[in-house]
Design a protein that fits this description.
This protein is an alpha/beta fold. The chain is built from ten helices and 17 strands. It has helices at 24-27, 35-45, 59-72, 98-106, 123-136, 235-257, 274-284, 295-298, 306-314, 318-321; strands at 2-6, 8-18, 21-23, 49-51, 83-88, 113-118, 142-150, 168-177, 184-191, 199-200, 218-219, 225-226, 232-233, 266-269, 325-332, 336-343, 349-355. The strands form five sheets. Strands 6-5-7-8-2-17 form a six-stranded mixed sheet, sandwiched between helices. Strand 11 (218-219) and strand 12 (225-226) form a beta hairpin. Helix 3 packs across helix 4 (98-106) and helix 6 crosses helix 7.
């Protein structure tokens, strides 16, 4: 699917990561592998440290804290907020959706339109498309796109294949109406559900409800431990999918928009690991400095939140004055692909903040 949405722009980005830092150097001692091989893997993949929320802090808590930061700093106003799109793969409760939980935590007006999108790694681009559609439809002048994730909940600490990658985070991206004819965001989406078993959590849904049996840990052929309630990833299959499908996706969106690939100043991609992104940049013939690959080593892979964390960490205050042409691309569970291009900049805010833990939602005055 391709789409161009005119008259919309990103007004600001604020990303939140847990204050608590977990270091790979400390964790590698718990993996059922020789420390030497774990360190070698860590150097290749970019494992250094990641941020994991404490047990009292949920994805909704991280999101509400971020929203309250925006309210506290005057970047967003409760009384004028018209809509929220909340993207997550983890829910505070099976019912109701996260958007309603966040609405209640923030004490928002009853006329705020709340939308929940269940999505994984491509969730930022999917959510951006949804928010842009709502603004372009004419009913709202501004929508808060909230991406939040507790990916570490699905990972087993004895699974070296997934746990060192995982991180928790939340972000708020404000999408606004614009009268500037140059403000347009272009999208391309692709899905190959036939490959869905390469990245999934087998148990916990209707097809295989979670039980005591599905919680039993099993040692796989590589030596990792996980249960059917934990995330399974066929790393080789996912890597092949990304290498095979992402470069054509970028070529497609450039052709659709009518730009040369080298006109894109920054590739703000989903962040799975450093090794994959370096190989992807080389295959795309994009200079590595234009395709950042440092989020996993500092914060971990927070699924649908890695792109706004990438924006806030690597570009930050530069986007208050500059307005580069960027391509946001993502890939992951499904297996799915998404890309969006726009002029990103002249923002009102672009910050990365820390959450203090313990389920706090009030940002300090």
């Amino acid at each position: 699917m391709r789409a161009s949405i005119h008259g919309v722009k990103i007004r600001g980005v604020c990303a939140t990561v847990p204050q608590q830092v977990y270091r790979f150097e400390d964790e590698l001692k718990t993996f059922p592998f020789p420390e030497k091989s774990s360190r070698r893997l860590g150097r290749v993949m970019g494992f250094n440290e990641h941020r994991i929320a404490d047990v009292k802090t949920t994805p909704c808590d991280l999101a509400s804290y971020t929203m309250n930061c925006l309210f506290q700093k005057g970047w967003l106003r409760k009384e004028t907020l018209q809509g929220m799109v909340v993207v997550a793969q983890m829910a505070d409760h099976p019912i109701p959706g996260n958007s309603k939980v966040i609405h209640g935590q923030l004490g928002l007006p009853t006329d705020v339109f709340c939308t929940d999108v269940y999505e994984n790694c491509i969730g930022f681009v999917s959510g951006l498309y949804t928010a842009c559609c709502q603004v372009a439809a004419g009913g709202m002048d501004e929508v808060a796109l909230i991406t939040t994730d507790g990916a570490s909940c699905y990972a087993n600490k004895l699974d070296r294949n997934t746990y060192p990658l995982c991180g928790d985070a939340a972000a708020v991206t404000v999408v606004s109406r614009s009268d500037d004819p140059d403000d347009v965001i272009h999208f391309v989406f692709r899905t190959d559900g036939s490959r869905r078993e390469a990245l999934l959590v087998p148990a916990g849904g209707c097809r295989m409800p979670a039980t005591a049996e599905t919680a039993r840990m099993i040692k796989d052929e590589m030596g990792n431990y996980r249960s059917l309630n934990n995330m399974y990833m066929d790393g080789t299959a996912v890597f092949q999918f990304v290498m095979e499908c992402v470069p054509p996706l970028i070529d497609e969106i450039c052709g659709y928009v009518g730009i040369e690939k080298n006109a894109i100043e920054y590739h703000l991609t989903h962040q799975p690991n450093r090794f994959m992104l370096e190989k992807l940049a080389d295959l795309m013939e994009v200079p590595r400095e234009r395709l950042f690959n440092n989020i996993v080593e500092h914060f971990g892979n927070s699924s649908c939140v890695t792109i706004p964390v990438n924006i806030a960490y690597n570009l930050g205050a530069r986007l208050l004055d500059e307005q580069p042409l960027v391509c946001c691309s993502a890939f992951g569970a499904g297996l799915s692909l998404a890309a969006a291009t726009c002029r990103l900049g002249h923002l009102d805010f672009c910050e990365l903040i820390e959450h203090p833990g313990n389920g706090v939602i009030e940002y300090p005055a």
